[in-house]
Amino acid sequence: MAVTDQAILKIKEMIVSGELSPGTRLPPEKELSESLGLSRNSLREAVKALEVIRVLDVRRGDGTYVTSLEPRLLLEALSFVVDLHQDDSVLEVFAVRRMLEPQAAALACRSITEAQLAEIEKQVADVGEDADVETLVAHDLAFHHLIAEATGNAYLTSLLDSLSSHTVRARVWRGITEGGSVARTIDEHSAILDALRGRNAELAQALMIAHVSGVEHWLRKAR
């Protein structure tokens, strides 16, 4: 294993063990490198790598801190990687969404609050059949985010937000080229909402599979 990788693992162990908690400032470079048995160059490389994936925050003239470690921050690295992929990778993103979103809908049925239901109901009610494609896609993003959020799982919510944002272009293109997309999306969202309201996990899961698969199927035919 490369020395830099060893340094990364040692810092990770300090965070996992609680020796370094979110928001904590790391010891001075000389002190930390000596305590870990590493060269200062190896430590610097490890810190740079951990800064890229938002585990550490290097504040010039102040020091290096552990970030909040919130899912939103940690999953930015995934977003970066997905951004680098083109062409058929969007189909793979849809395939992952097809696996995760139905499970999120099922989980939401068990944990969603009345306030969260009301928020989703308002989101659906605010979109009319005369909505333009951009409005529809913005609504779709918000709709899926609210369902994921209702699971109470912050990591799942951040992961789905990241994946969903990378399928926006496909959804916009479908809305432009395929007639009836607005009415169909609203109908599908309304049906999923009804399943959530009825706490019917199996139905919500099935409806979400059909909903996400619709765009995926269109995209496969259109390519």
From TrEMBL:
Entry keyword annotation includes DNA-binding: yes
UniProt xrefs under PANTHER family: TRANSCRIPTIONAL REGULATOR, GNTR FAMILY, UXU OPERON TRANSCRIPTIONAL REGULATOR
Name of the protein: FadR family transcriptional regulator
Domain HTH gntR-type: 1-69
Keywords, alphabetical: DNA-binding, Transcription, Transcription regulation
GO MF annotation, one: DNA binding
SUPFAM superfamilies, per database record: GntR ligand-binding domain-like, Winged helix' DNA-binding domain
